[in-house]
C-alpha cells in the first residue's frame, strides 16, 4: 500500500510518501478538471492506494475540501471518481481510508453551489421516493426557477391538457407536478434568505443511499462577519408510504438575532421542469380547499380533466405558535425565535399525501395518519426498509469504488421509482424517467424491458404489480389494435393513465425550433416488451396462478395482434410485417414516406420467439388454464394454425457477408460520413435532428440512434437468436457477431442511453472485453455525468440504470438465466476482485460470489446449474465452490 499525503500550498499541491515527493502546480485561471487530471496522473505514477489530506478541510461539512486559489473543491470527487483512490482528511468527516471507501460507495455527494441544468440534474439524482411518490432533491427553501426545481410526483397521477400549436390542438397527458409541501425558509431579523441569491460560502449535499436520507447543509454569509448554518434533512417513509418528513436546523455562527421560519404548502405550482414543454398549458389541478390551523395545514385539489382528487396535509413542530394564512392557493405559516450566537433551532415538517387513485375518504385518512407520524418514524422506517432492500438487492463490487457507487445509485433509484411495499397497492408502472422529472411526460415505454427483470429477480410481487398495470390496460390495447384495423392487443408506445396512445403527432426540433412530424407510435415492438416481461416473470417465479389470471391472456392477445400484422407475400412465399419502426427511431419509413418500414429484424425475431414460447406454454400449462385464457383472448384454433405457418415463414434480410439488416431495404440507403459530422457539430447523438436541420431526412441514410438489428441478442441467448434465424431458413456465418458489431457501431450515434448497454453486452459475447468495458462504464455513469448534455435535469434514465445491473450480473458475473438451465460463465473486468449478489431463479433463492478464480453458489433448495459449460449439482443450503479454468 502507498499512502500519499497531500498538502495545499499557495500555488501547488505537495504530494509526499515514504518514497519521495512530487509537486502539482496550479493557478487561479486553470480549469479544475485540468488540475484534477494532472493530480490523478501523479498519484497513479506514485502508486497511490489512498490519499490523506494533511491540510485542514476548507469545509465544516466534509473532511476532503481544499481551497485552490480561492476555489473550493472536494478532492474525494476529483480523485476517487476517476482513480478509485480513497481520500480522507483530519476532521469534519471521514478520517480513514476505510471510512472514505464506505462514503464513496454508499453515498452520493455534491460540494458547492450549482445552477441551471447541472443543478436540475443533481436534484434528479438526489431524488427520494418510495414508489408511491418521488420528491426531487431540491433545497427546502426554493421555488421553481431556472436553477432549482422542487418537483413532487405521485405514481400514475396524470392529467390531460390541450394547447393550440401551429394551427393544431395538441393534447398532452402529463405526470402532474403536485403542490410543493416541503418548503421551509429562514429569515434573519425580518430578511428572508433566498438560496438562489444568497452568498453561500459552504454547501454540501449528501444522499445516504444506505438509509434513504438526504442532507443539505449550507453556510450563508449575511455580511462579512455574520454567518448562519442551515442544515436540512429529507426522508421518505418507506413503510407508511403516504408520508415524508423534513427537518431544518438553524445556527447563527457569529451573531444573535430573531430567526423566523416560514413554511409553505404551495398549490400554485405548474409543470415547468422541461424547458421545451413550457409553451404548453401546464396548470393541471384546481385547489378546492385550503386551510391553516396552528401547526397544521391542509390542501385539497382535483386534476382538471382526469378528475383525480388528492389531499396534502402538513404538520410543523419546533415552535409553540405558528401564525398562518391561506390565500391564492398557498398556505403560509411562520414562527420566530430569538437565538444567540452558536444556539440552534430545529423545525420539523411532516407531509402526508392521499389520492383517489389508491384511497377513499382522503380527508379522514390524512387526518388519521398525520398525528401519528414524525420525522423520527419516517427516518426509522426508511432505514429499516432500505436495510432489507440492500440485503436482497445489493451488488457488491470489490476493487472498483466508483463502479460500486454508481451500481448502488442505480439500484437505489430503481426502488425510488417502485418499491415492494407501496407498489402492490398501486395501479402504476415505472416511467422511463422514474418519479424524478417531467421528461417524456412521465409516460411508460418499452423501458420496462430493462427494469422489470431486475425487480423479478428480487421482489417478484413488485414485478407482478407492474405487469398488472399492463393487464388492466389490455382492453385499451385491444381497442387500439382495432382502431388500426388489427386484431388482438396492441399496446401503445407511450402509456399513461388509461393505456391509450400518448405519443404525439409532432415534436419540437430544438436545433431548428420547428415542429416536425412524430411517427414514433409505429414502434409496435413495445407489445413484445410486455410479452417478454410476462415470460421472464413466469420463467423465474413459476407462478402458474399469475399465468392463469393474467399472463397467458396477455401473451395470446399480443400474439393475435402480430398474426393480424403478418401478411403473406406471394412473390417471396414468406410473411411480411409492414408499417412498423424498430428501436432505432431515426427511421420512420422509407425515403419520401412516413408509413413505417417492413420486416424490422428485431420485431420479427421477437414475434417468432413469442410464437415458440406459446407452443411451450401449451405443453406445460394445464389444458383448462390454456382453454380459459384462449377464450378470454379470443384466440381460436384457426389462430393457432396460422401461428404455426407464420412462425417458420417470417421474412428477414441478411447480406451475403452475414450482416443482419435492420429492415428490408436498409442496405439500399446511402452511407454517411459520421466523422465529418462529428468534426462539424461535435455531439451527433441526435443525428436525426441535425439532418432535418440541413433539409435532409435520416430515412435516407444508414445511420442509427441505438441498437436495433442486434437488439434481440439482449433479450435472448445468442443460441436462441441463431436458432430463430435457422428455423426461418437463414444461416449466419461463424464470425457474424464480430462482423455485425463492426458494421453497426460504425453507423450508430448512441442517441439513447440504452444503446451503449446493448452493445456492451454484444461486445462481451464477442469476447471484446475492452469495448464492452468502455461502453458499460459510459452507460453506468451516463446520468452521473449527464452525458446527453442536460437530459438528466428532466429525470433519470431508468432503463439504462436497470440495464447496467443486468450487464454486471449476466455478462461480467456471467450468470445467465434465460435458458432452461442457469449457466455461469464469468468475464470479470480485469480490475474487479469479486462480485457478490443474491437473486431469485425458478423459485429458488441463490447467492453468488464470483472471483477471477472461482464461483461460489448457495441455494435454498437443491438444483443443477452449469459453470463454464459443465453441469454442477448445488445441494440445498450448502455453499458450492467451482474453480474456474482460464
TrEMBL record:
Q: Name one GO biological process term.
A: carbohydrate metabolic process
Domain Glycoside hydrolase family 65 C-terminal as annotated: residue spans: 817-874
Q: Does the keyword NAD apply?
A: no
Q: Which residues form the active site?
A: 585
| Binding sites annotated in the UniProt record for substrate | 446-447, 705-706
Task: Give the molecular function GO annotations.
Answer: carbohydrate binding; glycosyltransferase activity; hydrolase activity, hydrolyzing O-glycosyl compounds
Pfam (any one): Glyco_hydro_65C
Keywords, in A-Z order: Glycosyltransferase, Hydrolase, Transferase
User: What is this protein identified as?
Assistant: Glycosyl hydrolase
Question: Which species is listed as the source?
Answer: Schleiferilactobacillus harbinensis DSM 16991
Amino acid at each position: 500500500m502507498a499512502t500519499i499525503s497531500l498538502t495545499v500550498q499557495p500555488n501547488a499541491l505537495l504530494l509526499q510518501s515514504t518514497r519521495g515527493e512530487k509537486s502539482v502546480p496550479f493557478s487561479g485561471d486553470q480549469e479544475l478538471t485540468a488540475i484534477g487530471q494532472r493530480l490523478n496522473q501523479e498519484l497513479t505514477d506514485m502508486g497511490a492506494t489512498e490519499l490523506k489530506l494533511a491540510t485542514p478541510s476548507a469545509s465544516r461539512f466534509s473532511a476532503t475540501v481544499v481551497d485552490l486559489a480561492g476555489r473550493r473543491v472536494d478532492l474525494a470527487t476529483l480523485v476517487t471518481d476517476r482513480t478509485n483512490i480513497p481520500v480522507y482528511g483530519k476532521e469534519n468527516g471521514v478520517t480513514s481510508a476505510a471510512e472514505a471507501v464506505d462514503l464513496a460507495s454508499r453515498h452520493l455527494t455534491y460540494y458547492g453551489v450549482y445552477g441551471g441544468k447541472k443543478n436540475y440534474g443533481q436534484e434528479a439524482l438526489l431524488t427520494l421516493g418510495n414508489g408511491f411518490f418521488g420528491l426531487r432533491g431540491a433545497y427546502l427553501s426554493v421555488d421553481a426557477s431556472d436553477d432549482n426545481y422542487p418537483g413532487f410526483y405521485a405514481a400514475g397521477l396524470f392529467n390531460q391538457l390541450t394547447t393550440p400549436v401551429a394551427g393544431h390542438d395538441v393534447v398532452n397527458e402529463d405526470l402532474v407536478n403536485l403542490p410543493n409541501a416541503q418548503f421551509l425558509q429562514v429569515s434573519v431579523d425580518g430578511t428572508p434568505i433566498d438560496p438562489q441569491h444568497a452568498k453561500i460560502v459552504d454547501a454540501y449535499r449528501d444522499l445516504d443511499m444506505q438509509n434513504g436520507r438526504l442532507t443539505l447543509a449550507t453556510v450563508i454569509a449575511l455580511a462579512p462577519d455574520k454567518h448562519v448554518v442551515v442544515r436540512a434533512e429529507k426522508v421518505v417513509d418507506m413503510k407508511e408510504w403516504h408520508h415524508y418528513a423534513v427537518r431544518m436546523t438553524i445556527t447563527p455562527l457569529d451573531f444573535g438575532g430573531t430567526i423566523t421560519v416560514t413554511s409553505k404548502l404551495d398549490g400554485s405550482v405548474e409543470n415547468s421542469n422541461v424547458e421545451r414543454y413550457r409553451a404548453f398549458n401546464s396548470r393541471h389541478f384546481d385547489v378546492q380547499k385550503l386551510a391553516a390551523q396552528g401547526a397544521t395545514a391542509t390542501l385539497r385539489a382535483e386534476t382538471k380533466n382526469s378528475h383525480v382528487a388528492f389531499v396534502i396535509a402538513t404538520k410543523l413542530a419546533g415552535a409553540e405558535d405558528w401564525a398562518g394564512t391561506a390565500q391564492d392557493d398557498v398556505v403560509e405559516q411562520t414562527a420566530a425565535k430569538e437565538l444567540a450566537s452558536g444556539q440552534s433551532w430545529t423545525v420539523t415538517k411532516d407531509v402526508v399525501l392521499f389520492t383517489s387513485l389508491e384511497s377513499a375518504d382522503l380527508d379522514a385518512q390524512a387526518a388519521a395518519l398525520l398525528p401519528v407520524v414524525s420525522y423520527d418514524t419516517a427516518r426509522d422506517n426508511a432505514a429499516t426498509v432500505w436495510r432489507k432492500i440492500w440485503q436482497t438487492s445489493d451488488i457488491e463490487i470489490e476493487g472498483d469504488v466508483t463502479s460500486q457507487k454508481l451500481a448502488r445509485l442505480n439500484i437505489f433509484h430503481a426502488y425510488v421509482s417502485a418499491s415492494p411495499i407501496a407498489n402492490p397497492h398501486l395501479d402504476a408502472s415505472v416511467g422511463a424517467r422514474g418519479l424524478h422529472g417531467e421528461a417524456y411526460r412521465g409516460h411508460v415505454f418499452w423501458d420496462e424491458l430493462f427494469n422489470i427483470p431486475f425487480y423479478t429477480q428480487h421482489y417478484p410481487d413488485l414485478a407482478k404489480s407492474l405487469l398488472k398495470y399492463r393487464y388492466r390496460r389490455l382492453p385499451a390495447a385491444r381497442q387500439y389494435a382495432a382502431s388500426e384495423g388489427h386484431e388482438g392487443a396492441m399496446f401503445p408506445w407511450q402509456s399513461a393513465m388509461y393505456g391509450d396512445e400518448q405519443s404525439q403527432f409532432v415534436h419540437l426540433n430544438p436545433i431548428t425550433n420547428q415542429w416536425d412530424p412524430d411517427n414514433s407510435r409505429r414502434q409496435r415492438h413495445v407489445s413484445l416488451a410486455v410479452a417478454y416481461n410476462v415470460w421472464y416473470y413466469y420463467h423465474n417465479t413459476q407462478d402458474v396462478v399469475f399465468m392463469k389470471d393474467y399472463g397467458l391472456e396477455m401473451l395470446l392477445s399480443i400474439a393475435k395482434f402480430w398474426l393480424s400484422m403478418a401478411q403473406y407475400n406471394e412473390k417471396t412465399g414468406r410473411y411480411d410485417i409492414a408499417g412498423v419502426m424498430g428501436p432505432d427511431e431515426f427511421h420512420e419509413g422509407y425515403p419520401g414516406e412516413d408509413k413505417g418500414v417492413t420486416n424490422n429484424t428485431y420485431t420479427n425475431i421477437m414475434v417468432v420467439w413469442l410464437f415458440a414460447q406459446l407452443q411451450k406454454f401449451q405443453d406445460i400449462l394445464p389444458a383448462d388454464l390454456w382453454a380459459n385464457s384462449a377464450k378470454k383472448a379470443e384466440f381460436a384454433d384457426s389462430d393457432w394454425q396460422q401461428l404455426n405457418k407464420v412462425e417458420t415463414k417470417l421474412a428477414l434480410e441478411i447480406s451475403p457477408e452475414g450482416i443482419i439488416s435492420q429492415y428490408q431495404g436498409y442496405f439500399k440507403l446511402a452511407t454517411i460520413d459520421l466523422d465529418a459530422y462529428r468534426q462539424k457539430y461535435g455531439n451527433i447523438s441526435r443525428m436525426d435532428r441535425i439532418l432535418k436541420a440541413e433539409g435532409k431526412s435520416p430515412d435516407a441514410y444508414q445511420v442509427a440512434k441505438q441498437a436495433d438489428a442486434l437488439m434481440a441478442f439482449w433479450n435472448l441467448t445468442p443460441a436462441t437468436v441463431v436458432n430463430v434465424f435457422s428455423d426461418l431458413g437463414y444461416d449466419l456465418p461463424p464470425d457474424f457477431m464480430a462482423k455485425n458489431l463492426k458494421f453497426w457501431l460504425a453507423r450508430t450515434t448512441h442517441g439513447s442511453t440504452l444503446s451503449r448497454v446493448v452493445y456492451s453486452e454484444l461486445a462481451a459475447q464477442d469476447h471484446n472485453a475492452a469495448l464492452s468495458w468502455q461502453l458499460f462504464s459510459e452507460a453506468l455513469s451516463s446520468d452521473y455525468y449527464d452525458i446527453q448534455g442536460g437530459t438528466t435535469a428532466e429525470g433519470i434514465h431508468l432503463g439504462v440504470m436497470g440495464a447496467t445491473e443486468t450487464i454486471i450480473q449476466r455478462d461480467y458475473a456471467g450468470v445467465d438465466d434465460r435458458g432452461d438451465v442457469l449457466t455461469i460463465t464469468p468475464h470479470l473486468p480485469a480490475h474487479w476482485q469479486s462480485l457478490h449478489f443474491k437473486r431469485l431463479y425458478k423459485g429458488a433463492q441463490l447467492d453468488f460470489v464470483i472471483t477471477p478464480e472461482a464461483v461460489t453458489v448457495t441455494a435454498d433448495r437443491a438444483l443443477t446449474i452449469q459453470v463454464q459449460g459443465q453441469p454442477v449439482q448445488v445441494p440445498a443450503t450448502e455453499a458450492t465452490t467451482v474453480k474456474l479454468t482460464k
